Amino acid sequence: MLGDIPLFQLADRRLAWIDSRQRLLAQNIANADTPGWKPHDLPAFSVDLRKASGTIVRTDPAHLGPTAAHADASRQLHGERAPDGNAVALDDQLARLAETETAHDLASDLYKKYLGFFRLAIGR
Hints:
Elements: H1 6-30, E1 40-41, H2 45-53, E2 75-76, H3 90-122
Antiparallel strand pairs: 1-2
């Protein structure tokens, strides 16, 4: 039932993206000592969303448009490499992980809040 509502479909998609990103960042952190390991990250959620929905439409000229920073479809993170070829910067990976946790908290809180609105509307 909720899966048919676009708002909840978007929330589910966002949470799935967050889950995938968290797994990828955890792999990067787990391989911080692996010689030759190159860290990876997912493209921004807006890129994934744009692919699925086509063109983003600005409904008001004051709204911000898509930025070129999110134009790449997939990316390998580039940075300084250790002598063994490992390019994982733990501080960067931990910052990305914290950002992902914040995004998860926001998405799940919004999901719960809208679910509460629906329950209120139907009298449950």
